[in-house]
Every structure is written in structure tokens, then in C-alpha cells.
Design goal:
With 531 residues, the chain is of the alpha/beta class. Helices cover 48% and strands 11% of the residues. The strands form three sheets. An eight-stranded parallel sheet has the order 12-6-4-3-2-1-14-13. A three-stranded mixed sheet has the order 5-7-11, with no helix packed on it. It has a three-stranded antiparallel sheet with strand order 8-10-9, with no helix packed on it. Helix 1 packs across helix 2 and helix 16 packs across helix 17. The two termini are 37 Å apart.
């Protein structure tokens, strides 16, 4: 239903109440409806799942159509990101939000800052999804409210052309609501626990759930040591639990992103169950680091498996964890990825220790031999030292080509001394094109930065504190913040408007007419920012 047809339909509804609803304005109700397009989180999940499916098809047709997101730890941060995207690029197309379990643990837990080990309350995950979408929906209401004010002004001035243009803008309005890829960690327990949390996340609006193959109660950040994986069947039970949650709630095209941490995980908590040689359990166990056992070297409590007709003992640590063979990580990642796609996953996530296109592509090439349209979500992680990594990659490439690298110290390439050098400039260009290049070469459909707004909040606060509490005093705020907001057109310089004051004034007028006590009068100091 369009805005204008909605007004007509509401007019008929109000008119049919024998005068008892005459204090209700049909256009005011239509405005409130269009400002609240999504009534529930499930409406959002269905809408955004369709967007992701369309974008995945567009990427399959042309890898230049990759997608991007930034991790946001608060609704306001996500809102400002989408407002900025619309301001600078005119469209939110192919731009998403990422919800990071790391940032929830570090910033949103009632326990206070925590490491990324699934110790935070699992309810904080759907709570942040709901918060993000609350702020995005409010961004819609605010922007549409300003358009309605312009529309009223055009009508009052008798400017029919402007009125027609504004009505068309309302009818074709692009929402700030975009897909969220939401981190469900390792599922926070068994498959039933995963299912219950997945439902809450989907009901809050998540159309895409990212789940990893670590042990829930031993979960570690993807870029830390000590990671422990689970056998495939254990992980696939949780993947199926997520799919059941989507289907139960009517989000039939929901997206499951399966993450493998096997590249950096050298341990497993259990030996996989196997029925016959070559089955999935046997393939998992084949990667275990084992030693042949004889009656002479057998020990009390040994666990023994049959490998190629020989009895072997998997190496078990004092922690009761079993060890994989060194150097088997890439092979395990490939098997994990193929198995996940064959059992209901839509997208892959391979957690790597560095951003190296050929390393990622080497694994994706092998996966695509079995699943030709395999696609990745990739973590452009702040845990990587991007400057050092890419300068070292250029250094190594030049050395292989026989170029003279004697002017550079490979171990010290992070130094400011190399800024502006030929090597430094080439490394920066490789960083600039990394997403486009890896989307084309390594099958990466979606590029995200997990923790960017954690770092930007820290950096901007440090800069302000240094100036404000130093000699600059109030000028530190004015020069570094307010004047920049005004000159760069940052919406929240009018913070009362951003917080919903004008929306509230509109509602007061709807509810009380001329008796409304509104905040946006001539004495509102936000009028100082009108110029």
C-alpha cells in the first residue's frame, strides 16, 4: 500500500466510526505507519534475508558485487554508520551490519569487560540485535519526519511541484534497515541451547547467523591460541538447530554462516565416532597426531584407535585434549567447509592468521572443486597488523623477483621511516584493493571488520581527552568535534533532533493539536545550527 492510498483507506476507516474518531488525522496515522515500516523483528529478518539472497546471486554473476560491513557495539553506532552511508553514497545497497561476539563480551556484558570466550550472557546477543534495529528504525522515522515537514511547508507555500517530488520520495524511501550478520559464537551450549538462542536472535531481526566449530565451553577468540574444535557431527547438529529455528519462525531463506577455526586450532576435545573407514568421523580422526602402540609401551588409561590395521594412540595432553598433526590445518579447513556446505550452510568463514589472498584462495580453490559456488565471509580483522603484513608481503615478492631490498629491514617495516617509500606505497595500494582483489580471486562475498568501532571510539576519545584536559580546553572540543560536525554535515550535531525531539513534537501535535507543548520553538538552542 502506498502512502497516499493508505491515507485514503484510513480516512474511510475513521469516517466509519460515527464521529467518535474525528480527532484522528488519517495522514498523521499514515505518516506514523511509514515511519514504522517494520512491526516486528521477524518482519526485518524476512526482509533482510531476501536482500542477502539477492546480493549472493549478484556476486555469483560478478564478484565485483561483493558486500561489506562494520561491526557495531551499540545501536547509536550502527545508526550513525547507516546515516553516513546514505549521506555519502546515496544508497545502502550491499552494505550490512556485523554483530561481534567479541564486542558484546568486551563492552556489553553485565560482568564488565570480558575476553571473547562466550562467558557473557547469551541474552545480550539478541538484546543488541534488537537495539541496533531500534536505532535504525528511529533513523527512518527521523529522516521521514523531516521530509514530512518539508512536505507541509511546500503545501503551505502552494509549491505543487515540490509537493509532488516529496511525495515521490516518501513512496520510494530507502530504509536504514539492512542485514545483520550476527555472531552466535559456538552456540552457547548443546544443540538445544543453540536452537533456543537462534530463535531469540531471529525474532530480534537477525537474518544471518554465524556459528563456529569450537567447543562451547572452551571457546576462544579466533585470533588467540588454545582453540579446540569439535567433530563434524557435533557441529552439524548445531547448524541444523539454526536451520530449524529459521524454518519454525517462517524465515525460510535465512542464512547460516559456518566458521572453521581449524587453521589455528591444534586440539580437539574428543575423538569422533566412526562406523566405517572413510566416513566423516574417520576423516576427522585421521588428522589426529598418533603413535603406534605395543604391549610394551601401553599405559594405563590409553585410548586406542585402529588406523590402517594398526593400533595407534592419539597424543593426549594433561588437559585431556587430543592433538592434531602439525601442518594439517588447511586440510581440516577444506574438509570443514565442504562438509558444512553439504549439510545446509550458505556461506563459509575461514579464520586465518593473516590477510593473505593466495593463502585464502588456495583453500577456496579446493573447496570449489566440490562446491563450485562456495562463497566466504572474511574477517578483515583489527587483530592483523595490516601495515606490517602487507609491507612484508611486498618485501617478499620483491625479493623473489630479484629486486634490491637492501634499503629495507623486514623485521622493522612497521617503522614510520618506511612511510612514503616505494615499498610502503605499494603495500598501501594492496591494502586499498584487498577487498576487491580477494572477492575476485578468493571467493569472498562479504568483507567485514569485526571491531572497528571499538577502536574508533577509543581513538576519538583519546584525542578529545588530550586536547580538552590540556591547554586547548574548550577549544579542543570545538575544533576537533563540533566545528567538524557542522562543516562535514554530521547529523548528530543537532543531538536533540537525533534523539527524537522533533518526532516527539510531531506526535504531541497529532495527539493534542494546538494545545501541544512542543520543544522545537524559537528558544531551542538547536536553531543555532540551522545555518
Amino acid at each position: 500500500m502506498t502512502y497516499q492510498s493508505d491515507i485514503a483507506q484510513l480516512g474511510q476507516l475513521i469516517g466509519g466510526k460515527n464521529g467518535t474518531w474525528d480527532g484522528i488525522d488519517a495522514e498523521a496515522v499514515a505518516r506514523m505507519r511509514v515511519q514504522n515500516r517494520f512491526r516486528t523483528g521477524l518482519d526485518i529478518a524476512r526482509y533482510t534475508a531476501a536482500i542477502m539472497r539477492k546480493d549472493m546471486a549478484a556476486y555469483d554473476a560478478d564478484p565485483a558485487n561483493y558486500t561489506q560491513s562494520l561491526g557495531c557495539w551499540h545501536g547509536f553506532i550502527g545508526q550513525q554508520k547507516l546515516i553516513a552511508i546514505k549521506k555519502h553514497f546515496g544508497s545502502t545497497e550491499r552494505r550490512y551490519l556485523y554483530l561481534s561476539g567479541w564486542m558484546i563480551a568486551a563492552l556489553r556484558s553485565e560482568f564488565g569487560p570480558l575476553p571473547d570466550q562466550s562467558m557473557h550472557e547469551k541474552t545480550s546477543v539478541p538484546a543488541l540485535i534488537e537495539e541496533l534495529y531500534t536505532f535504525l528504525r528511529q533513523a527512518d522515522a527521523r529522516e521521514l519526519g523531516m521530509m514530512f515537514r518539508e512536505l507541509d511547508a511546500a503545501r503551505e507555500a502552494g509549491d505543487q511541484l515540490k509537493e509532488k517530488q516529496l511525495l515521490a520520495s516518501v513512496e520510494n524511501y530507502q530504509t536504514h534497515v539492512v542485514p545483520i550478520i550476527a555472531d552466535i559464537d559456538a552456540g552457547f551450549g548443546n544443540a538445544e541451547a543453540t536452537y533456543l538462542l537462534a530463535k531469540k536472535m531471529i525474532e530480534a531481526g537477525a537474518c544471518a547467523l554465524q556459528i563456529e566449530n569450537q567447543v562451547s565451553d572452551e571457546k576462544q577468540c579466533g585470533h588467540q591460541d588454545g582453540k579446540v574444535t569439535v567433530p563434524h557431527e557435533d557441529f552439524l547438529a548445531k547448524v541444523r538447530a539454526c536451520r530449524y529455528a529459521f524454518l519454525e519462525l517462517g524465515v525460510e531463506d535465512g542464512i547460516i554462516v559456518t566458521r572453521t577455526d581449524s587453521l589455528g586450532a591444534g586440539l580437539t576435545k574428543q575423538i569422533a565416532f566412526s562406523n566405517e573407514p572413510g566416513d566423516l568421523g574417520d576423516q576427522y580422526n585421521a588428522f589426529l597426531d598418533c603413535e603406534e602402540i605395543t604391549p610394551e609401551n601401553a599405559r594405563s588409561g590409553d585410548v586406542v584407535i585402529n588406523r590402517d590395521g594398526k593400533l595407534v594412540r592419539p597424543k593426549r595432553l594433561a588437559s585431556n585434549l587430543y592433538q592434531f598433526r602439525a601442518g594439517s590445518g588447511e586440510d581440516r579447513c577444506v574438509l570443514d567447509s565442504i562438509t558444512s556446505l553439504q549439510n545446509g550452510a550458505d556461506l563459509l568463514w575461514i579464520e586465518t592468521e593473516k590477510p593473505h589472498i593466495e593463502q585464502i584462495a588456495g583453500m577456496v580453490d579446493r573447496i570449489r572443486e566440490v562446491i563450485p559456488n562456495a562463497k566466504l565471509v572474511y574477517n578483515n580483522s583489527p587483530s592483523f597488523n595490516w601495515t606490517l603484513n602487507f609491507r612484508q608481503q611486498v618485501f617478499d615478492a620483491w625479493a623473489t623477483e630479484g629486486r634490491d631490498v637492501s634499503a629495507y629491514d623486514r623485521a622493522k617495516l612497521m617503522s614510520v621511516d618506511y612511510d612514503g617509500t616505494e615499498l610502503g606505497d605499494e603495500a598501501d595500494e594492496r591494502i586499498r584493493t584487498f577487498q576487491a582483489d580477494s572477492a575476485k580471486r578468493a571467493g569472498i562475498f562479504h568483507h567485514l571488520i569485526t571491531l572497528p568501532t571499538y577502536h574508533t571510539a577509543a581513538l576519538s576519545t583519546d584525542n578529545l581527552a588530550k586536547e580538552y584536559f590540556g591547554e586547548a580546553g574548550m577549544l579542543g572540543y570545538v575544533l576537533g568535534v563540533q566545528r567538524q560536525e557542522i562543516r562535514q554535515g554530521i547529523a548528530c550535531v543537532k543531538h536533540q533532533n537525533m534523539s527524537g525531539s522533533d518526532i516527539g513534537d510531531d506526535h504531541k501535535e497529532y495527539f493534542a493539536g494546538e494545545a501541544a507543548l512542543k520543544a522545537g520553538g524559537v528558544h531551542n538552542t538547536m536553531n543555532q545550527f540551522a545555518a
